[in-house]
Design goal:
3 domains
């Protein structure tokens, strides 16, 4: 048996390229088909399910999406893509999954084209058939690698596949355009800048792109770097300025939102150790991980000068030194390793972030792994030894490739099932990493949503033991303790959440709800008025203040707040319903009650369950004059 990738008589290269692209599309798309039935998870709530910004594609909303807001992430292209999905699919998750898969397929095609071009530029002595094999083998391995499941199947991770498509499109255009001359070169480099801007606006970590270009140019022609810089200075200056600007924006936004954390262990040396372990474990995610998870437990052995820490530091320095030294005899190892290092750089916790390790963090970086494996399989495919038949190593290479593809594909399909819903996702994560703060926190949220309060409390309490500054888990514990009537515990957790995160409104709102349950209406009123002093146009706060007045028996004040909320959010049915309830059950004004029930039905025709209730209420009131 002999499997050929090289030219056959009568076969045009263009046709063969189309064939490989179609094969890659079928593999990359087909392997994620079983994710189409997955629901939104509670990781998708704030970005998609409960995000009002994606509900419209009018000009004003698009301008607001592209506007910088204090404390908010800046990924406008991701939000635009959600808005397009919402226009066609509303809140049916299948459409959002289809879009994720589509961009992943496009990304894999760009990985194939980029690998072929990159191989040709860094391996001038190899044949065109060899470059094509490297690209095909590498791209297929990239397409089915299970570390990508989080980036493709998690809908909020849309930023990853968008960034990946634009990033590799930009890199491919750069490889194609760098040798052009005159106006053609200008067009190519302008398109590179445009696509990288799109990548950055999808996910800001794409600011590392100029570093990838520099590493490539060093690998390609280290002796002529000055000539390259002189010939491309405008492009380099513009790309560095663009990356620098958005890097500044990202750091500023993260600082405002509390995304930059204190040094782990409260010292630079301990945080440096964290960077080392993140780097090594990111490599492990690509080459030596079987049980992938949505969350990982991560503990650093202390004190710093322990034997395992010294070994980890030495291993990191060895890998970096080996890759730098490898430029003396091979360009591909030098480029592949430094591509990985630069791509993972934003996630190494040099600026400490909340998540130390995640599958999605190696999404772009896995390109280097695919490149090296593609080269390895091509070497085996092309190897000849006189004691074996001519096709033996070709068959061996293809057999090994198919074996790994099947193994990776099986892991990917199984991993897709773990993302079916919130419960399957976090039950899997907790089972694999029971000491993960994130897994326990979100398992607790899942149990809250299912009404399983005891189980929720168990996981949330564990989450705050692992990470005491988790204000969201403390906020949720406050809600749960309040439900159980454990007022002292509820008050303690809500107050702690406010101290830990004083600029977040949720714990204060829940504290106001707690005070209403305790019939301490004045305290609840004071909290909500304080929040309204900062956000006077917040319809939800006016609505909640109206509920406080309603429960306190101050009906005129309640009606006033409900009307303000209605004016600010005219398409939300809750205010109409509450106004109708106040007039019907508290003030016995049945005509006004029917009026507001009817207005609510007209204002929110898609709120079908509530509308049915309001229609029954209207019918019940028909007998009252």
């Amino acid at each position: 048996m002999e499997i050929q990738l090289n030219d056959q008589k009568g076969t045009r290269p263009g046709f063969r390229e189309i064939l490989w692209v179609c094969l890659l599309s079928v593999v990359a798309g087909g392997i994620y088909l079983n994710s189409l039935g997955n629901a939104f998870t509670n990781w998708d709530d704030s970005m998609i399910y409960a995000n009002p910004q994606i509900r419209s594609l009018d000009g004003e909303n698009i301008r607001s999406i592209f506007a910088l807001r204090e404390g908010a992430t800046y990924q406008p292209i991701r939000l635009i893509s959600y808005a397009i999905d919402y226009y066609f699919w509303k809140l049916d998750p299948i459409g959002y999954h289809l879009t994720n898969i589509l961009f992943y397929v496009l990304m894999c095609i760009m990985v194939f084209l980029t690998l072929r071009s990159l191989s040709a530029h860094l391996r001038e002595d190899a044949s065109s058939e060899s470059h094509e094999r490297v690209a095909l083998f590498g791209a297929l391995l990239f397409a089915v690698h299970p570390v990508h499941v989080e980036a493709v199947t998690w809908l909020t991770a849309r930023k990853e596949v968008l960034q990946g498509f634009f990033f590799f499109l930009g890199f491919y255009l750069y490889l194609k355009g760098r040798e052009k001359a005159g106006i053609n070169k200008f067009i190519y480099l302008a398109l590179v800048l445009l696509t990288i801007l799109c990548a950055i606006l999808s996910k800001p970590s794409a600011v590392i792109f100029p570093g990838v270009i520099v590493v490539y140019e060093i690998a390609r022609r280290k002796e002529k770097m000055l000539d390259f810089i002189k010939g491309h200075r405008t492009f380099l200056i513009l790309s560095l300025m663009m990356s620098g600007l958005f890097a500044f924006i990202v750091v500023k936004v993260m600082a405002e939102a509390g995304g930059i954390k204190p040094y782990y262990g409260d010292s630079f040396s301990k945080n440096y150790l964290v960077c080392t372990y993140v780097f090594l474990r990111s490599i492990k995610l690509l080459i030596a991980t079987l049980n992938y998870s949505a969350a990982y437990s991560f503990f650093i052995p202390l004190p710093v000068f322990r034997i395992e820490n010294i070994i980890a530091i030495l291993a990191t320095y060895f890998l970096i030194g080996f890759s730098l030294f490898s430029l003396r005899w091979t360009k591909v190892i030098f480029f592949a390793f430094l591509f990985f290092f630069i791509s993972i750089l934003p996630y190494l916790n040099i600026l400490p972030i909340s998540t130390l390790l995640a599958d999605r963090y190696v999404f772009i970086a896995s390109f280097s792994y695919a490149f090296l494996l593609g080269l390895l399989y091509d070497r085996l495919y092309s190897f000849r030894y006189r004691r074996f038949s001519e096709g033996f190593f070709r068959l061996l290479a293809i057999s090994l490739l198919l074996l790994i593809l099947m193994g990776y594909s099986f892991m990917t399909v199984q991993r897709n099932k773990m993302w079916e819903n919130s419960y399957t996702l976090w039950a899997d994560a907790v089972a694999k990493h029971p000491n993960s703060h994130v897994a326990n926190a979100l398992m607790g949220v899942t149990y809250m949503e299912l009404g399983m309060d005891e189980e929720a409390i168990e996981h949330l309490e564990k989450a705050v033991r692992i990470f005491p500054r988790d204000y969201l888990s403390r906020n949720n514990l406050g809600i749960l303790y309040g439900r159980k009537g454990e007022s002292e515990k509820a008050l303690r957790e809500l107050m702690t959440a406010i101290v830990v995160k004083p600029d977040n409104d949720a714990p204060r709102i829940n504290l106001a709800v707690f005070y209403v349950r305790q019939r301490e209406y004045q305290k609840a009123e004071e909290i909500l008025k304080y929040l309204l002093s900062k956000s006077p146009q917040n319809a939800n706060l006016h609505y909640r203040l109206g509920l406080v007045y309603r429960d306190a028996g101050q009906y005129e004040a309640a009606i006033s707040e409900m009307l303000k909320a209605m004016e600010l959010a005219p398409n939300i049915i809750n205010m109409y319903e509450e106004l109708g309830n106040i007039y019907a059950s508290r003030l016995n004004d049945f005509q006004k009650a029917k009026y507001y029930y009817t207005k609510g039905i007209e204002a929110a025709p898609n709120a079908k369950p509530i509308i049915e209730d309001l229609r029954w209420m209207i019918q019940d009131l028909e007998g009252h004059k």
